[in-house]
Amino acid sequence: MTQxxxxxxxxxxxxxxxxxxxCGGTLATLVAAGRRVGILHLTRGEAGTRGTPEERQDEARxxxxxxxxxxxxxxxxxxxxxxxDEDEEDALIAQLRRWRPEIVLGPPASDRHPDxxxxxxxVADASFYAGLAxxxxxxxxxxxxxxxxxxxxAFEPRFVVDVSAAWGQKLAALAAYRxxxxxxxxxxxxxxxxxxxxxxxxxxxxxxxxxGQLIGAEFGEPFWSRLPVAISDLMTLVPGxxx
Length: 243
Ligand SMILES: [Zn+2]
Prior knowledge:
- The protein is an alpha/beta fold.
- The chain has a single domain (9-224), classed as Rossmann fold (3-Layer(aba) Sandwich).
- The protein contains six helices and seven strands, in the order E-H-E-H-E-H-E-H-E-E-H-H-E.
- Helix 2 links the parallel strand 2 (37-41) and strand 3 (71-74).
- Helix 3 packs across helix 4 (114-129).
- Bound molecules: zinc ion.
- Zinc ion binds at residues 14-15, 18, 113, 115-116.
- Zinc ion is lined by residues 14-15, 18, 113, 115-116.
């Protein structure tokens, strides 16, 4: 696999739309600051109740464009039975060595959908193994940090990113997933699912307002870190919003 232009941040999700829902505002905020960001979907969403994998791939491309990310990639880890064996680790290690992201954003350690917890383990393990010279092909590379975005289950965040300025782009990214998520301007087709309900969309906004409010911002996205978060300049912790 050829080496690609290095990324600052690679966001990895189990299914197309996981990353956009969990950290789409953070990604758009990074892009606005001139950072190179990529998205890696570990599956093509082939087990989803609604939409075909082809539709979801088109939607993922449109969503990535709405956020301004530089690259969108897929692995085939298996939707609904997400595999975390050596083959999947090797495939993810190859992607990490190819893109060399400083920071990896991934799913939380446990969640309602079992694929999310499995994906968390896969991302954490591959991020470590990618730095080992005697594991797999290619130049060893280890990301500096791995953080988890929030999905269904709430957790106590280690930090919250102010995404107020990028909220419109996050909504545009979610609007791209026409087969998956409720759209205010149309009656989506297909069987009803929890994520396709208008209540789910309202909950996405409510959660972002809740975590935003805690840091004095209109909208915020929460993250978890296994390790303490390293700060070299304490003043970066001065929030920009209301006190
Ligand atoms: Zn998912």
